[in-house]
């Protein structure tokens, strides 16, 4: 049977492994197959796997870190090159793609990986060969063991590296895994006093200091080897063993350690485990997707990364405890409780938006820069957000199920009232207090308008400036049509309004609407048609030469890879290019002034390519996208690092990706007049 790199590393770094001791080839069933695995689909992550070794994935932002052995020095113990850490983005299906260098500071000429990160992704724990000042250090047994190190995220890379205090030159500590709250670390070690080769340990951090490690005991540890721990939010500990009854080689197991009394060790069975080595499973918070490593037949060679989907989760895993949040809704004018209000709850991203791109419309607005536009995401109206999670009862109350340490957006709405969004989270061990929400009545009619072309195409027109003049007091409301040609406004009851639509390339359009005799209605609709002035107006719904500035794209440190989850405007650009199939663009990336001119130029070129790849991964044809890196040559403010000291926000204003429309020719039938 082939041995995985992980197995070879175990052979290299342990004294006695006990392989082959009474292995049960028939395998006593520890579970009913249908109790564990239902609707499990497994895929080889072929975009990052090679004939070499890829193993031990770890979540980071919206991507993952993975250990790989690439060209370099040979480890005499395994006959393979040393492991390094790489970062891989995830494609829209969850499969890792395009591994890139992880860190200049952490990667050395010896082994690095696996890793664990805290929830804020600003502290990392990683396995590394015992190296100090670039020189390996052997223990009393003449072996170079592995240690666990810690580093903090700095401005450009991982900084302040230090080894953890429970390491030793004379035995190995490796495979760190962190509890969700970041205060407990699980790891594998062959330190003295264990049950066999490698055992699993836990260690707590109190008041900033690590306590003494504790062996997890004989329910988990055996005379063989237990390695690659991973603690899920549910309290389920996943680990790898070569001695618990399994399918052969290394197998993946789980045990519930969430309560005072632990559960029993359960083999995950097929398709996770096979006759080959299977190890290092990680699982998303909802329990429905994850990754593991295997050297099973049919892979690219050696250890490969596999992605799996578990519809409904892996049975036996209980999701984190939920709490009932009582939300009470009040009428702000009548000072009474409000029954029948709709309450919706969504997961919230770090930028404060709902974590669901489909719930937003696109809007293109003029920017401060000449000829520039910015892309804005506008939340859709409540009626397009699906059914509410809760409706308030006759006492104006509704109960929402929430988890600790989770970020939410709570949206409360009712016809005739102004909706309210609340950012909410419950800190661990904090008291659960009722949520009180006050909705103010609207004294207006919600107007939804659509602007189309008067030509035969009836094409929706984005970016139209809509001026709404109140005839009662001559006040004016200014708004614009969104990506779908729709505009919205709230108009005072009892007045007449003049609506004027204006856009370059079209004749202005005027219409009137009255809110004087509205009875029992809270909404109104209007459609306006604008006549194109020439044949190019409809062929170029967004003018050739237009520059769209994408400011909210974030890159990790001085890297070129886009942080998945921090590229909402690029997701919006995908929707734009899907709508206008003829659109061709040039992506231009800009850096701030920190770093040398040459370095910034190369970095901006890589960032532009990264943005292009992001679009291509989502189905946009590569030949529709050109790229260009500007480096630091076109700042938008006073920042000049040789002269002026700038704040981080000022530097961020200069770091942006721009989209220039270099071609667009929509195939429409146009009837126009001069």
UniProtKB/TrEMBL annotation:
The chain's coiled-coil residues are: none
- Is Membrane one of the keywords UniProt gives this record? yes
Q: Where is the OmpA-like domain?
A: 542-665
List the transmembrane segments.
none
Q: Where is the protein situated, by its record's location annotation?
A: Cell outer membrane
Mind listing the UniProt keywords for this protein, alphabetically?
Answer: Cell outer membrane, Membrane, Signal
Name the principal localization, coarsely classed. Answer: membrane
Q: One GO CC annotation, please?
A: cell outer membrane
Tell me the first and last residues of the signal peptide.
1-20
| Listed name of the protein | OmpA-like domain-containing protein
Q: Which organism is it from?
A: Flavilitoribacter nigricans (strain ATCC 23147 / DSM 23189 / NBRC 102662 / NCIMB 1420 / SS-2) (Lewinella nigricans)
